[in-house]
Amino acid sequence: MKGKLGTATMQLYSDIARLTEEGRPFVLATVIDTQGSTPQKPGSKMLVLEGGETRGTVGGGAIEKQIVDAAAALLAEPEAQTRLIETHLTHDLGMCCGGKMRVFLEKHGAAARLFVFGAGHVARELANLAQHVGFKVEVIDERPEWAQPARFTDVKLTVRHPAEVARELPGGPDCFFCITTHDHPLDQACLEALLRKPAAYLGVIGSRRKAERFKLRLRAAGFTEAELEQVKSPMGVPIHALTPAEIAVSVVGELISARRARTR
Hints:
By secondary structure, the protein is of the alpha/beta class. The chain has 8 helices and 11 strands. It folds into 2 domains: 2-108, no CATH class; 113-263, NAD(P)-binding Rossmann-like Domain (Rossmann fold). It has helices at 2-22, 61-76, 121-132, 162-168, 184-194, 208-220, 225-228, 244-263; strands at residues 26-35, 45-49, 54-56, 82-88, 100-108, 113-117, 136-140, 156-158, 175-179, 201-204, 231-232. The two termini are 44 Å apart.
């Protein structure tokens, strides 16, 4: 029995590690207190994923359905992070056990995903620093001599045309886009592909003059002022950055600010 319990617990923690690595949101439900007859005891854990998929158990039957429903509601609330469920199994759920359970729910949100278009000097510093502060980073560049593992640390590399990838990405509230390619027309092509997609952040590297030229072209292409206001260009906090590493620090500072704003 103990061996089986140990195996189940190890599998659950393995699932947590895998889901975290994949950037998939989930709720960890933990039985923290019981009184009387209950189907599970303190320490029992269950994961609830979007769509109601579960791993592990906190007792089955009506109590488990109650926890799954509460976890789904927690996942759907952007600002809520935890919830405590206190249930009398007979009085509240009609179960024959007769005991009481307290279950703590803790939400683990989707990882912030940073897509860096371009693999130049600034992109290298940006990607490596962003990965270090918790972003799940992907760098896209069609030049294999630039998008190579020797230049990046624990970063996914996609050797494809950046604008093509930008057009295919669905976007989402956990997506951060930084455009830093080696070519201004390519920067603009990426920007046009991303501008109407949901994102937590969209920025383009460059000077204020470049940003104004881009805005003129985008207005002519039919983009609205409200859409253009979403673009951070020049991107980064104003710290008078000059070197690629300094520019990366300024951009990551802005990314962190945008990421924290999602959870306030």
